[in-house]
Amino acid sequence: MTREHVWTTMTSDAMYDVAVVGGGPAGLTTALYTTRLGHDTVLINRGGGRAAMMLDTHNVIGVTESVSGNEFLQTAIEQIEGYGADYRRGFVESIEQTDDGFRVETGDAELSSERVVLATGFSDARPDPPLPRTGRGLHYCLHCDAYMFVDEPVYVMGHNESAAHVAMIMLNFTDDVDLLTRGNEPTWSDETDRQLRAHPVDIVDADVTGTETGPDGWLEAFTFEDDTRRAYKGGFPMYGSEYNNELAETLGCELNDDGTVVIDDHGRTSVDGVYAVGDLTPGHNQIPVAMGDGAKAGIALHYDLRTFPKSLAEIEAEGTVDTEEVPAVSDALRQSARQHNTAEADD
Length: 347
What we know:
The protein is built from nine helices and 16 strands. The chain is of the alpha/beta class. It folds into two domains: about 15-125 and about 240-325, FAD/NAD(P)-binding domain (3-Layer(bba) Sandwich); about 140-235, FAD/NAD(P)-binding domain (3-Layer(bba) Sandwich), CATH 3.50.50.60. The longest helix has 19 residues, at about 285-305. The relative contact order is 0.17.
């Protein structure tokens, strides 16, 4: 496919094999695979997202904790661009099915793509302030950050089933766990209440009125409306998530009751040609899991889109493959690959 990538007006005629919507670990990994497997790929990223908020990177083998989320993502962006993917900042307003695939529109541009990958993730519901800084006492990922709080005083904030269970789970890491309902009536079940009260978790009903932080910006304590002060290293707010599934819903993708997109083992949705990966789909919300989702979807897209081998039915209908038809990779990607491979050889 010969590409003309013009992003100046809504009437531009940019053509791609794959359009990835979302620039987190799942979307970036999908774009990495589809590009390296020879498919013209564009990734459109509105910015922000869960990974971008990380002050430190945890649980990603080979990546040290000193790497921030933004540094991690910027390295990935440079990687996919180096292989020949197009990366654009923008907000995708709509995706429509066409006879040839999909039309993707942002605020100031339009493109066409044979396949679409939704990697739009979700947003954590934030409790009302006062709150500590995200990553310095306010944490949303227990599996990422619980290790940080071994033998430290910890809070869990919320009044639902999830909050009660996370409070009990944190007893695996520390003996000092408070559950802060912030004046709300608990909504967990009677069974959960009996279970919770059988564990050494202190339930604090008074609302938070202030935070105290150290010189390094880390939370040191909360103050409460009953004039008490409690010291904490950090904790986890448990107020649910809002899945960014508007594009999936508009396209007619089947959704689960919780708002995630229904997919098969390779990211295919119920709509032909539409894939979904990462936190928008069921499963653990972890960077390595998201990257795995992206890798599987990228390979599935390659199987779906690759030109060769031709089937026997195609050969009988179209004849044998001529040498002028190969390689199938576009001229733009061939040039990117030659430049990349030459630079690697020089190093």
